[in-house]
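Example record for the data management plan.
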Amino acid sequence: MTTLSGTGMTLAQNPLDRTGVLGQHHGMTEDRPVYLRLRDSIAAMILEGRVRDGDPLPSVRSLAADFGANPLTVAKAYQTFQEEGMVTVKRGVGMFVAPGAAERLRTAERKDFLENRWPGIATHMRRLGLDVEDMVERSLA
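Corresponding structural encoding:
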């Protein structure tokens, strides 16, 4: 079993549940680069509260092993979070979720959804004759 750096937590206890996160997240399509798919799964963990401010993230090697990815690809995914200030690095200890990362991610995801995804969804709904209120009722049922 893989152990998360500095936590003693094994993969079975790991908040990064590949089937749950990958299976449900909108951006996990095969046509996107692997590093972006990995980034999306890490972002989903943060947004869902599976890891919170100050919590450690899996090490590059452990995440690479878990996903069967190249460690350089995982490092590139983590680098995007570092550049955005979403994670902090403690040398020799690991990477940790930065304070306020969830709210900043949520804001960015909302903006991306409303500007880039929703227009296509709304168009598709109109083509299919779907009603927004009906869709909301179905999702709440």
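Summary line stored alongside the record: Strands lie at 87-90, 94-97.
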